Amino acid sequence: MAKNKEKSDKDLSSSINIGISEEDRIAIADGLSRLLADTYTLYLKTHNFHWNVTGPMFNTLHLMFEAQYTELALAVDLIAERIRSLGIPAPGTYTAYAKLTSIPETEGVPKATEMIKLLVEGQESVTRTARSIFPIAEKANDEPTADLLTQRLQVHEKTAWMLRSLLEE
Questions:
Q1: Which helix (H) or strand (E) holds 138?
Q2: How many other CB atoms sit within 10 Å of the CB of residue 92?
Q3: pTM of the predicted model, to two decimals?
Q4: Of 149, 35, 148, 28, which is closest to residue 87 (Cα–Cα)?
Q5: Contacts of 38 (CB under 8 A, 6+ apart)
Q6: Helices 143-166/112-139 angle, 10° precision
Q7: Considering only CA atoms, which of 76, 63, 64 is closest in space to residue 35?
């Protein structure tokens, strides 16, 4: 049965005629799959930190992390839907995300300041991943993907800046 599903996904993918070659659609979807994995991993890390933050900045960080993980939860849907629009199945398992993500898992419960540093690193990782997809999308004249990437870059760069500001003395 799995072979039939793979065959039908392949047949569907090759019958798509949206002005982007199958090879380019696959390459773009591969990049977007990495972006999806990074975004989901950062979502999970941010949600974990929201639950477990303590200390004098508790209320500020608790609310900030909630706003951030809520935004990330919406973003994973947009990214996955763009992958599907290209005719490629979107990854959706922890196993797949673990293989695709550039964001390391955090063991234990770090102190609030360390949480902030780790989230800055995560936001910057997502930014680098998004930026790495641009050449492929531009080469294929894939404006919807370029637009999605631009929006994601704006969010992640701004969020990294806001988090970084909390670390200044």
A1: helix 112-139
A2: 12
A3: 0.90
A4: 28
A5: 100, 101, 102, 103, 122, 125, 126, 129
A6: 160
A7: 76
Domains of the chain: 22-166 (1.20.1260.10)
The b/e string for 124-146 (b: 16+ C-beta within 10 A; e otherwise) is bbbbebbeebbebbeebebeebb
Tokens at residue 49, please? Answer: 């930190």
Blockwise average pLDDT, block size 10, the chain, 169 residues: 49 74 96 98 98 95 97 98 97 97 96 98 98 97 97 98 93
* Contacts by residues 50-53 (CB-CB < 8 Å, ≥ 24 positions apart): 52/109, 53/112, 53/115
Residue identified by tokens 């935004």 is 71
- Tokens standing for residue 19: 């002005």
End-to-end CA distance of the chain: 60
**Residue 48, both tokens:** 């974990």
pLDDT at residue number 17: 85
Residue 3: per-residue pLDDT: 52
CB 83 within 8 A of CB 31: no
Tokens in use for 141?
């004249």
Distance CA 31, CA 137 (A): 9
Alpha-carbon torsion 62, 67, 68, 70, what sign?
positive
